[in-house]
Design a protein that fits this description.
Blueprint: E1 6-17, E2 20-32, E3 42-48, E4 57-62, H1 64-79, H2 83-86
Antiparallel strand pairs: 1-2, 2-3, 3-4
Length: 88
């Protein structure tokens, strides 16, 4: 069964695809059937720059436990960085 749970968020960063580095402006996070990883369902993250077309995309498919560990590692890392370094 598909959940159709999707979150879209504006981001600022860079990603590296087949044609090299490009800027990123959006991320789409969803739990659905994966395209590649051999799982029934996965947490999928697409990092995108829509203005550059469909090739400006970096896709990630993770099992749920890996996605949780990644989210915890991101939050843990950011909590240890001085606040003045994380303000943009």
């Amino acid at each position: 069964m598909c959940t159709y749970v999707t979150e879209n968020v504006e981001i600022a960063g860079s990603g590296k695809g087949a044609n090299g580095w490009f800027s990123l402006g959006e991320a789409s996070v969803y739990f659905d059937h994966p395209a590649h990883v051999p799982l029934e369902h996965s947490l999928n993250i697409d990092f995108l720059q829509p203005e550059l077309g469909p090739s400006a995309r970096v896709a990630v498919e993770l099992d749920a436990a890996s996605a949780r560990r990644l989210a915890e590692a991101i939050l843990s890392t950011l909590s240890q960085v001085p606040q003045e370094l994380t303000q943009t």
